[in-house]
Design a protein that fits this description.
Radius of gyration: 19 Å
Structural class: alpha/beta
Shape: globular
Oligomer: single chain
Strand content: 15-25%
């Protein structure tokens, strides 16, 4: 039996089909500095969706999906499509679509295979459903590439923000799990050579003051036992070395997946500023396990409440102050860190 939330979304979806509603064009203009970007992950389509109201209250110009945007977990593309449509029928999300530019990337559950990588047989078909959900034009070159990675630049030349979104599923090597603990694949890859080359060009050629790199799984944390870049130490080292060597300004990492929120920070050799990672996960549900979890890079507290992320950009002269916020229900601020570039 459908719960009341699922029933409401299906009803709204049916009305949308009848009225022929379409996703509006992006509203962000190149000459307008980006001041507010919002992001989140882990959005189960059949659960209550209480965070769209506080997200809208922040008036983000851009919304970034960071994966598990639905819980599809299927080889049947009709199942994934129906669940995407349920999200698009959510009234709060529809309002966000009308007022913000929507971009994003996937993780395993919207990819279609729990904990999956390159072995997923339906990844090409699933890619097209993801692009449909994001609103990528039918003739976009991105629909022809292997993986759903993308980059987006906002603002005039003297105050640009670039958002680089990585696909950490399509080309990912296998990862074993023993007694529910993920093992280490020391030589395994995550991105695939074509995406690595693309990422290097995006970073080295970037003129942006701030460069945001988002993907589904955590990059900096090493001690947690769940999926993370540290399970692929060669790939993780390659990513961090590339960031440091690229000379790109103001790199900030964004991630999801974990059903918790936290901010991590480290210093990389060769970088003139600290590298932060903001993990926001749990738009509809959060982790109910241990109250504590080790993370030597964490600054601030571990958050186990429903949450979303906000980056506020305060531009002045030749510098920008970036506020990294984790917020919850009623727009409550749960975490805050500030950096100036």
């Amino acid at each position: 039996m459908l719960n009341k939330y699922t029933a409401v979304r299906l009803l709204v979806f049916a009305l949308l089909i009848l009225t022929g509603c379409q996703k509006p064009a992006a509203t962000t203009q190149p000459e307008t500095p980006l001041t507010t970007l919002a992001f989140g992950s882990c959005n189960r389509e059949d659960l209550p969706q209480p965070l769209w109201e506080p997200i809208l209250k922040n008036e983000p110009q851009v919304w970034v999906w960071l994966g598990d945007n639905i819980y599809g977990d299927s080889y049947d593309m009709n199942v994934l499509q129906q669940k995407y449509e349920m999200v698009k029928a959510e009234p709060g999300y529809r309002q966000l679509m009308a007022t913000s530019e929507i971009i994003g990337v996937w993780d395993d559950h919207d990819y279609g295979l729990n904990d999956g990588g390159k072995e997923y047989e339906m990844k090409e078909q699933s890619s097209q459903l993801f692009w449909d959900f994001i609103g990528e034009p039918a003739n976009s070159p991105r629909r022809q590439q292997e993986g759903v990675y993308s980059s987006h630049t906002y603002g005039p030349s003297n105050s640009q923000v670039k958002v680089i979104l990585l696909d950490s599923r399509y080309h990912r090597d296998s990862l074993a799990r023993i007694n529910r603990v993920y093992q280490v694949n020391r030589t395994g890859d995550i991105l695939g050579e074509e995406q690595w080359r693309w990422l290097e060009q995006e970073l080295r050629n970037s003129k942006a003051k701030v460069n945001i790199i988002g993907n589904g799984i955590q990059v900096l944390p090493e001690e947690q036992v769940f999926e993370k870049w540290a399970n692929f130490p060669a790939a993780r080292k390659r990513l961090l070395d590339l960031i440091a060597a690229s000379g790109a300004n103001g790199v900030i990492l964004l991630s999801g997946d974990r059903h918790i929120a936290e901010i991590s920070k480290t210093n990389l050799a060769g970088m003139r500023y600290p590298l932060y990672e903001v993990t926001s996960s749990g738009l509809t549900h959060v982790y109910s396990g241990a109250a504590r979890e080790p993370n030597k890079y964490r600054v601030g507290e571990l958050i186990k409440q429903l949450n979303f992320g906000i980056l506020n950009f305060n531009w002045s002269h030749n510098q920008v102050k970036v506020e990294m916020l984790i917020k919850g229900e009623n727009d409550t601020t749960l975490l805050k860190e500030t950096v100036v570039y």
